[in-house]
Amino acid sequence: MMNRYKITFVLLFLFAILSCKDANAQKYTYQFSEKAEKNISGDVVILPFGNSYPVKVGELSGGKLTMDLENVQSDVSRQIIDDHTTNIVEQTPFSCEDYDDSLPKSEVALAGSFVVLAKDGLMIAELFAVTDKSLKDWFISGGHESPVKSSFYEMMYSDFDVVIQDHCQNYSENGQKIIQNHQMDLDLKKGFNRIEFRIEEVGKSENGDFDIPVKTMVTNKKMDWKNVKWVLNPIEGH
Fold first, then answer.
1. 234, 34 Cβ separation under 8 angstroms
2. Which interval of the chain is the signal sequence (predicted)?
3. 20 by DSSP, 3-state: which?
């Protein structure tokens, strides 16, 4: 009887481990449903080292997106890496004018949106990984449209292992009012990392003309990849 309980416990323990692993799996597929989306096919790449050095992470064919973000590799030269990696503060879209100088040294390159390449190497579409599809307008407008409380995901290359934890604030011109709160909680490994950019609160800009993210988190911890939705944005002329 005791052996049976031991076997049951071991099986439940293994199931729990596998379930957690699946929840954060980096290999998966996604099916687009619109006719226009199904007409776009090509390699899915990221561009942390510029347009001349695409890094393949998947394929899009007949509306089916197949991704493998677990074994992303690049054979670019040391010089190319050095030319495109900088401090994390210069890479994140949520930054402060007075980030703490005590932040640990980092050399990273943010990949930006995912891109679909045709066989001739031309960019034919962008892919945005988001939790709310309405965030697409904010991306395409370069931040001029109103954001929404949600997350978006991008890849970041790190030249070495580094832990970065920091919090900063942007103030009004007179220094009396906090306009934005930004936080980072990153445990980057050498190579390519998935990063979540979380918009936790939306508010008004200092002059009140438009909406902006006023509280954000940049992290690669405890990300729920199951809630990611993919938005396909065809590039005009293709």
1. no
2. 1-25
3. helix
